[in-house]
Specification:
The protein has 325 residues and is an alpha/beta fold. It is built from 11 helices and 12 strands.
């Protein structure tokens, strides 16, 4: 069976004009040669600091942005250059849950209309009573009440709004959902509830998730595999337990060392790796390894050659010259 999703050498560059007298075009390399796959019923967690290109990767996969190059293969079909019309059936199969539960819901629409919009666009049903029943069922599935359908977004808390966003994504029975930082705007107590709900939905439906987050502790809970991005590139990818227990890339090690430990004594004793300097501009990333300006192991080779992903153990790859194949 084909993978649910296969991304091959995906690039998304944004063009920016600069200069006062003479306009100069510059390319923001938001996603730069990223490849990975997601199987049916699997969750891949994608982590990295903000601005590393994880959300742009998600938006390019779902074709909110047209890729600069590379291939997007969904369920064995290459959708990279599909027109809007050709994409319509795939928009039903691929949904997205957005980060901000306040901005992502239209404040002038009722909850029934917000959830029902996807049902109408994709002609899931033309029967009014069936539509109402579907909306009531979706609200119940995400832990809300049927009579919430007639209310407006401002009447709900952040956690409840995110549940509405999830109900909207589920309305068309997708096979794949891109969860773009779905919990980062929520209170910690609500985050676990939303993650548990997403896991339960996955168990019941077998859908795949790309779970984008900067909170590495929550992403560990939900993901089967983890990908780590830095400055538009994938620097490490592998089974969750391998990446967390045996991180290979110096950037992954630094990210993991920053996860707080609940026990105060262990937290005090741990060896946190503090990265020097800022993330360089994606317009003009460093030559060779993009991480080299912040890496204490950097050598001359790191400045000359861009490392590619190499397999270091079964289901674990890293892009770093410290590892030779
Ligand atoms: Fe550091 Fe070189 Fe590895 Fe990049 S390739 S992470 S600079 S050691």
């Amino acid at each position: 069976m084909a993978s649910l999703l296969e991304i091959q050498a995906l690039k998304k560059y944004f063009t920016k004009s600069n200069g006062f007298i003479k306009k100069v075009e510059q390319h923001v390399k938001a996603v730069d040669n990223v490849s990975f796959s997601i199987e049916h019923g699997e969750t891949l967690g994608l982590v990295g600091e903000s601005g590393c290109g994880k959300s742009t990767t998600g938006r390019t996969i779902i074709k909110l942005y047209q890729p600069t190059s590379g291939r997007i293969i969904f369920d064995g079909v290459d959708i990279t250059n599909f027109s809007e019309k050709e994409m319509l059936p795939y928009r039903k199969k691929m949904q997205m849950i957005f980060q901000d539960p306040y901005a992502s819901l239209n404040s002038r629409m009722t909850i029934a209309d917000i959830i029902g919009e996807a049902i109408d666009v994709h002609k899931v049903t033309t029967s009014k009573s069936e539509r109402d029943d579907m909306i009531a069922d979706l609200l119940t599935r995400v832990g809300l009440m049927k009579d919430h359908a007639s209310r407006y977004p401002h009447e709900f808390s952040g956690g409840q709004r995110q549940r509405i966003g999830i109900a909207r994504a589920l309305a068309v029975n997708p096979e794949f959902i891109i969860c773009d930082e779905p919990i980062s705007a929520l209170d910690v107590s609500i985050q676990a509830q939303v993650v548990n709900m997403l896991e339960e939905i996955q168990r019941n439906t077998g859908m795949g998730y790309l779970f984008i987050a900067h909170d590495l502790s929550m992403v560990k809970h939900i993901s089967k595999r983890i990908g780590v991005m830095y400055l538009g590139q994938l620097v490490e990818i592998g089974d969750r337990d391998k990446v967390y227990s045996n991180p290979a890339h110096p950037y992954t090690k630094a990210l993991l060392s920053a996860i707080p430990i609940p026990d105060p004594l262990s937290e005090k004793a741990k060896n946190r790796i503090i990265l020097q300097g800022d993330v360089p501009s994606p317009i003009n990333p460093p030559s060779g390894c993009h991480f080299r300006t912040r890496c204490k192991y950097s050598t001359k080779e790191c400045a000359k050659c861009d490392p590619v992903l190499k397999t270091i153990e079964n289901n674990h790859q890293v892009a770093c010259h410290l590892f030779k194949q």
